[in-house]
Structures are given as C-alpha cells and as structure tokens.
Amino acid sequence: MSFVLGVDCGTSGTKTVLFDEQGNAAASALREYPMYQPQNGYAEQDPLQWKNAMLDTICEVIGKSGVSAQDIVGIGLSGQMHGLVMLDSGGNVLRNAIIWCDQRTQSQVDRMNSLAADRIVQISANPALTGWTLAKLLWIRDNEPQIFERCRHILLPKDYLRYVLTGEFATEVSDASGMQLLDVKNRCWSEELCSIFDIDTSLLAKVYESCEVTGKVTLHIAEITGLKAGTIVVGGAGDNAAAAIGTGVCSQGRAFTTIGTSGVVFAHTDSPVIDTKGRVHTCCAAVPGSWHVMGVTQGAGLSLKWFRDNFCCAEKETARLLGVDEYYLMDKQAETVPVGCERLLYLPYLMGERTPHLDASARGVFFGLSAVHTRKHMLRAVMEGVAYSLRDCVEVFREMGLSISDMAACGGGGTSALWRSMLADLYGCSVKTITSKEGPALGAAILAAVGAGLFDSVSQACGAIVKQDKVQLPDADRAKVYEQYYQLYRKLYPSLKERFSELSAL
Hints:
This protein is an alpha/beta fold. It has 2 domains: 3-247 and 439-466, ATPase, nucleotide binding domain (Nucleotidyltransferase, domain 5, 2-Layer Sandwich), CATH 3.30.420; 299-404 and 413-429 and 475-498, Nucleotidyltransferase, domain 5 (2-Layer Sandwich), CATH 3.30.420. α13 (375-399) packs across α14 (417-427).
C-alpha cells in the first residue's frame, strides 16, 4: 500500500500526518512553537522553528508508523497564509517572519490605496489588507532597508518548508493569492502590480497548481528524516484551501463553515467572482482552474469561549467531575431555551468585525435583555449570534451569485449538534460533518496523492477519500422563527455603527 504525508504549518504548531491511500491516518505528530510580539500589534515567528518542527514530526510519524520510506510516495504542504519569509542569496533567513495577524502596516496600505486601489482589487481580487504579504514587504523596505537590500527570495511559511525539503523556490496559486501580487484571475504573478509597487519579480517563487510536483526531497533531508531521497513534494495549499480539499469542497455549490476562534464560510466556484466592496476574499482554489470565496467573522468560537470562561464556572466544574467536555454541558443548557431566546439577540463583535462590516471599532452587544432572561438565555443567544454572523457571509455570497447547496461543518464548533442545527436552519441547506478531523493535513495529503499519480484528479481523490459522517437537515418551522430574528439582527449594526465609533474614541 502507498502512503502520503500531509504537513500543516499552523500558527501554534506544525502537525504532520501519514495517511494511507484511502485517507486513514497511520500516525501523526505535533510540535508547538511561540509567537513573538515585539510591539503592540506586531506578530512574528522564527522560520527555523517551523523547520525543526517539520523535521521532528516527520521523523516521529515514520518511526511510530513503521511504514517503509519506499512506500511514502508524496508529500503535501499546508500552512498559515500571508506570512513574509525573507532569504538572502545563500537561502538563509534574514529575520523573523511577519505573520498573518500582524497589524503594523496601515500606513503601507494607505499608500497602496493612494497609488492603485482599484487595480489592486481588479487584479488581486481583494482590497489592500494590512495582514497580507505585500504590505509587510513594503513595511520592511520602509523600516528595515538593510534587510530589504539583502533579500533575494520571498516565500510564504509553507513554501519555506518546501525549500528546506527540496531546495526549490516554489509556491502555488491558493497561497500566492494572499500576497496581493498575484493576478488571481489568470493564476500568475502580476507584472503590473509589481511595477506599481517597484517589486523585482526575481524575488518571487515559481507558481504551480496545488497538485503539481514542485520538487523532490534532497539526499540531505532524506538522511535526517528517514524519507526516501527523490520523494515528490507537491504545491499544497494555504490552510483554508487545504481544509476545503480535506472536507471534499471541490466543486461548484459546495462550501464549508469552520467555527474556531474566528468563523469562516468558504465556497468553491468555477469562475473568479469578486466582491468590489471587499467584504469577502476571493482566491485561487487548490483545484486547478477554480477559485474560492471566503467570508470571515472575527469572534465566533471566541464568543463562546469568552462566555464559558466568565459565566460557566458550574459547567466547568461539573464537566471536570464527570469527565466530559464542558462545551457538551453548555450545549445541553442552551437546548432548553427556545429559538430566539425569548427576544434576546447577541452581536459577536468582541474583536471588531470583517465580513460584512470591515469595522475594527464594532463591539459585542446583548440586545433585548430583560428580567425574564437567565444565563441559559444568554448562552444560547451567543450561539445564535455567531450563527447569524455566519449567515451574513452566506448573504454576501448570494449577492455575488454564488449558490450553496452542500455545506460541511468543521472546527471545534462544528462538533456541536446544536450549532449545526442553527446553521442548517439559517442557511436553508443540510450541514454535514466529515469522518476525518485532520482538515488541512488531509487536504495536503490528498493533493500529494494526486501528484503521485494515485488519482487522476483532485475531485476523484476527494470522492474516494473524504467520507461523510453526520448530516443535519434544516427544520422549516425553526427556520421561519430564525429568519425573523436574523432580519432584526441585520438592522442592529447600522443602528449602532456611529455609536461604536464614538465609543472607540472615548
């Protein structure tokens, strides 16, 4: 039997999973590493720690699995997007990577918009954003010119790991879409954007499709890890694009919702559609010749964690005594409250909001509190408010002409049957879970399986490997009630927008 490796370079750690050709995990390993914040709003990581984490986890999974290196036919890479890794002429890291959540670049974004706001959207399919790679590169040029002058290669986090494995400078379309230097419609670097911002195209890696072979494991890395020299490494994908493959979202009409700290609604599309208002992101998908649209709500699982930590001490203690998950007990409490929480609504803007409002000043609100309401009402209102915010993402998709008929749920919140039922009722379609919980690592491995020739296409591989688990169907009666509350929810932000600004100025 053949095996493939999926390596996922996340923000908190790198996870490597070895899968057989049917998608079963033979072994996995995780290594964590820190994030550095030298100033407020800064976020950096050391690429050498990513490198060591990857090499250590590869060694561990090969050792734990007992699988022969001869049977490992390919490696796929997934990773956090938008990070800036800078190498000198010898391939040495010049400084810590500035990662996706860094917010130091507002002045660079303002300058980008003054130079070419419309062309940035038209070519890169997204407005200029502080967290994306080009703004970071401009910040380095403005503030660390000695580093910029020595830079000869710019790589994304997972693509630095590819360089470690293969010695090749390469990237792929899904991750490169988040740099704001890619022509997203034509899936290649934009000579025009590079010219506008005076970026030498020789700094940029060669662009591949996600399932294409980008290089092979070197003899040096083979000796360190136990891999076979010459093992292929495919393009892989950015984390959400890889998660899409890992959940089988690879054709028109399919989508997934992730409820983690933030919430993401991700939809596959066969043509590049762009929201000119910048409320959602459009990127190349990991399926050749296709794209994806992604909406983000900032405070999804974060809202429930905040409520748990501050108001659910009893559930936490009971869960500890019973040996169960405290979120399971919280679900059971919320289930006792009717839809709409007896006229109580929650806006989940604890960290501002992205889709659809793009407002860093927005803040969380309980609306409609009365003496009838209890802690259980507030708990359910938090869950419903997050579901309404995710429905906002779907509404933007519908404005753009994207129809969703098949929705998967993943992330920690996706394990909640109550939350899945809310999403099904609000989306108006079934919401399913997938048997594998490996997400991006599985998606990267599926791409490797295609590159190694185990499957003819990404869609064929997903059809063979991704297995459906639970299915939640919408309930027409509940959906009618939710719709009334959702329409009121949509009116609250416009009513409060100016008040949020006043609050932030106090």
